[in-house]
């Protein structure tokens, strides 16, 4: 990756390690549905003026179908799954489970980059990491298992969304794409969220600030950077931001929310990281493999 891609990679890695911590704070006083709808609405309010000023919305003409599909699989679905999932599991475990995303991307992109023996080993390691996490961290807790399942479904949805952007929407300017997806998501969610409004004075300032951070930083800015990263580096490399996301999420959860991290959490995370690394290694052609080292 070139320098702009690396800078975007670091930015997205940090911005998408923060939301699990902010979600945990926001759902103390706000319903998960309202958190997701509010997050989308704040993101759209920030992004639409940017797209209008840049005159990039014309690039969406004739793309309503894939853009609406992207809104469903990259925002509405996974945001709801993660937020409701965090009512049952810790923010640090949520971030670690999301790290399975590069393994899923490797499977989805198998036609473009064949699954080699090393990649199979990576896929197996990643799967074992999830088994260890779920088996040791939430074993015997039915609601914990449900929460973990929601987060894993969100990871699958994120992986498909990454592939969708690269294959069908990589030529759309990121500001137009993010403005459209957040607006569509807001329109879909707000009619339901109005029935979940809190009573006056029932929400603390920390919850409102967390929601603002989710909308401005973790949605608007992060999506802009991520879609641009996909265009520069491709879906496989862009998906590797989940190497760093869990570290940020775990550090915030442990230091600020006093969430426990057991042996199972560490072991599962290491297996997932190893699986991601192996399953996303670039495939060399026979001529490249036989080329002399200089």
Automatic annotation (TrEMBL):
Membrane topology: Multi-pass membrane protein
Signal sequence interval, chain numbering: none
Keywords: Membrane, Transmembrane, Transmembrane helix
Transmembrane segments: 7-27, 33-52, 64-83, 89-110, 117-136, 142-161, 173-195, 207-226, 238-257, 263-280
SUPFAM superfamilies: Multidrug resistance efflux transporter EmrE (SSF103481)
Cellular location(s): Membrane
Pfam families in the record: EamA
Domain of life per record: Bacteria
A GO cellular-component term linked to this record: membrane
Ranges where the EamA domain occurs: 6-134, 146-280
Family: Belongs to the EamA transporter family.
Protein name as catalogued: Membrane protein
Species name: Actinoplanes cyaneus
């Amino acid at each position: 990756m070139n320098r702009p891609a690396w800078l975007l990679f670091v930015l997205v890695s940090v911005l998408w390690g923060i939301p699990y911590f902010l979600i945990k704070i926001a759902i103390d006083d706000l319903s998960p549905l309202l958190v997701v709808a509010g997050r989308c609405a704040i993101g759209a309010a920030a992004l639409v003026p940017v797209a209008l000023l840049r005159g990039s919305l014309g690039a969406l003409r004739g793309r309503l179908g894939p853009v609406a599909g992207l809104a469903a699989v990259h925002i509405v679905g996974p945001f709801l799954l993660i937020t409701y999932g965090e009512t049952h599991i810790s923010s640090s475990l949520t971030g670690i489970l999301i790290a399975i995303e590069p393994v899923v991307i490797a499977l989805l992109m198998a036609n473009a980059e064949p699954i080699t023996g090393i990649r199979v080993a990576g896929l197996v390691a990643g799967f074992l990491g999830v088994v260890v996490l779920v088996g040791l961290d939430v074993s015997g807790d039915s609601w914990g298992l449900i929460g973990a399942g929601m987060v894993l479904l969100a990871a699958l949805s994120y992986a498909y969304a990454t592939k969708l952007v690269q294959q069908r929407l990589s030529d759309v300017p990121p500001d137009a794409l993010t403005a459209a997806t957040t607006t569509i998501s807001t329109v879909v969610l707000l009619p339901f969220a109005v029935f979940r409004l809190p009573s006056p004075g029932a929400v603390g300032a920390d919850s409102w600030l967390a929601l603002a951070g989710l909308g401005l930083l973790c949605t608007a800015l992060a999506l802009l950077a991520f879609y641009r990263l996909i265009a520069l580096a491709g879906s496989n490399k862009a998906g590797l931001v989940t190497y760093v996301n869990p570290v940020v999420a775990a550090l915030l959860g442990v230091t600020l929310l006093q969430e426990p991290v057991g042996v199972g959490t560490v072991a599962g995370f290491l297996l997932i990281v190893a699986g991601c690394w192996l399953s996303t290694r670039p495939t060399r052609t026979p001529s490249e493999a036989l080329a002399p080292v200089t």
